[in-house]
């Protein structure tokens, strides 16, 4: 292709996209009834005329255009006509939500911290930012990533000792991604953003059989095989997106990941965050060694009984002796520390199990829920789910009774499967996922516009949810077609800015209760629909392998995690969440430590987590009163 031909093709593609975007803007301002059909045109245009690079370029252009406050006020003025005051869209705030707040090291007093949703916040007595990593300009290529941050470790230890002298509580915070008050503290708050210096394959003090990779038995596609896995050392405050960068630099990858990469790795582990895959455990299952600073400033390196560390080499090391680090290799203690909900100490660093970089092939296909349910129940559910490395289902809690056909009135769902792809699929190599959702999610004002769209058209939410499911189908027609890439791109859900405006509650169920739980959710949602209280998104089923951590939702058995999602600001969603949570808990649900809206109390926790009392013994050993916060105390004292 000549340079002139390339230029003409580029110009044509950009011209088409620009006209479609301009047309959509006109429809939004002057003819909102036409917006749905114009979005379909935009969807097709982005899919066929716009590469990933071009999409990002257009996102940046649109964000630049809508940045001035007077532009946002003009849009507000058009959209808020005849809207109830509490449902008006507000676009002209000075600050949009970003991936993370940045906290300066030299401002320990008069700071404020809040979780991402804004329902819990702290104004602590002191605010610490320990560690010597570079959060703002993170790069795994930096030479410092090859070293361990002993100075930062000592700083954390001294901070804990000083806190105890003043009889203060201590709490570490990551990205504040939890909806619960699990991270809240009013005394000494520790921001972990700079505890990210170490990013290296784990070699130091490691047993020989683990240094250069080791075999792990896996069961994917109902076939048991061996995989070669590796060990990687990272800082406890590392954000998952930075960890993915570091692993990629070393030609490694996460074995699995949750739907968001904005969390810190410790935050994900300490609440048993998970992805999908009945043969894959939650993120906490990949932790093989954790270095924590507990009560009294004591430093522990905690591992299972058959841990990866060579005790002889470790205990004779001069740095270990200097800092008084105690190696504990004990299953009971490690299973308590793994999912510690922030109460066993400050996780300064950890060693994770990873695997060499790999590719995944993803396929997303729409079904009628009742037909899929019947298909899943024909045989053993585990066998059906484990036919793929990853298996997920998105279900519309409502039926679109305005559809023109009987099939259109059926309850829709989307099945996502992912499997290993040994080499790039040349037929799919130039393809992307369907563009519309990822494109919109990158636009800065989309999160604030979303609740307005749902509140303005709440009667159409069932149809809009069906449309969103349809748009997630791989874009070679309704039959699918697939998406193939390196695992980090396939597992990334591409939620962008919308991630900060959506919120969720989540519950675990044993496989034999999944379908009854789904029926209950649908029943409650349809009852509330009569009062115009609706969820603004489909709910998901994700299947996860059992995990030994005492406080993991998967502690007892393989689990289906059901996540209910809506958009912040949609009228009726929050009370519906509360109603659903109460009903599901009565039905035997296991709540997620970070995704819950109802109060937690002891009887509820002991029922859901039978090893809670065992965990309490180890919490007293490692964290004690120093690392208790109001959330844990309320559970224990209730």
TrEMBL record:
<dbReference type="GO" id="GO:0016020">
    <property type="term" value="C:membrane"/>
</dbReference>
<dbReference type="Pfam" id="PF04030">
    <property type="entry name" value="ALO"/>
</dbReference>
<keyword id="KW-0560">Oxidoreductase</keyword>
<keyword id="KW-0285">Flavoprotein</keyword>
<keyword id="KW-0274">FAD</keyword>
<dbReference type="GO" id="GO:0071949">
    <property type="term" value="F:FAD binding"/>
</dbReference>
<dbReference type="InterPro" id="IPR016169">
    <property type="entry name" value="FAD-bd_PCMH_sub2"/>
</dbReference>
<dbReference type="GO" id="GO:0003885">
    <property type="term" value="F:D-arabinono-1,4-lactone oxidase activity"/>
</dbReference>
<dbReference type="InterPro" id="IPR016167">
    <property type="entry name" value="FAD-bd_PCMH_sub1"/>
</dbReference>
<dbReference type="InterPro" id="IPR007173">
    <property type="entry name" value="ALO_C"/>
</dbReference>
<feature type="domain" description="FAD-binding PCMH-type">
    <location>
        <begin position="140"/>
        <end position="357"/>
    </location>
</feature>
<dbReference type="InterPro" id="IPR010031">
    <property type="entry name" value="FAD_lactone_oxidase-like"/>
</dbReference>
<protein>
    <submittedName>
        <fullName>L-gulono-1,4-lactone dehydrogenase</fullName>
    </submittedName>
</protein>
<dbReference type="InterPro" id="IPR016166">
    <property type="entry name" value="FAD-bd_PCMH"/>
</dbReference>
<dbReference type="InterPro" id="IPR036318">
    <property type="entry name" value="FAD-bd_PCMH-like_sf"/>
</dbReference>
